[in-house]
Amino acid sequence: MSFNSVTLAHGAYTATWGGTDMGLLEGPVRHIGQIHGTFIRAEKYGDVPVGAVYRGTSAFVQITVKEWKAVTKSAMNPQSTSDLGLSGYIGRDAYDFAQALVLTAVTGTKAATNGPVTRTYAKACYEPEFSVETLMANDERNIPLVFRIYPESAPSGQLRHFTDT
Question: At the topology level of CATH, where does 13-164 sit?
């Protein structure tokens, strides 16, 4: 078998949030898609689903940031403009402080050749239900971030989570 015809798309990506470079990343950037549905059950079959009603999708991005930069702190606590000691004002809509998260394939990689070269999430905000753990030690500081991707309306009337180029 020849591997010359295999189309691979591996390669590192860089990330910006709100137009600011997030610096060094460790490991892969993970796009996580989740399909929602309501199961259809019948008394005759107990708890076994016999179908499901599609109820939409959610999207998340998980990255590990290496650098302790203002953009990192802002992404960790967007409701308080990077002051990690403040909790922000209660009742604000996270959509209002979501910003564009742009992933760009590093030049010379298979990802840059076979794509997506750029993936743009127009509205990304730190996932409210995810706890971030930050090391305060002599070890390197790896900061895992999970962004919830808020969709935007597409011309078709559907919702769009991201755009690839």
Answer: Elongation Factor Tu (Ef-tu); domain 3 (2.40.30)
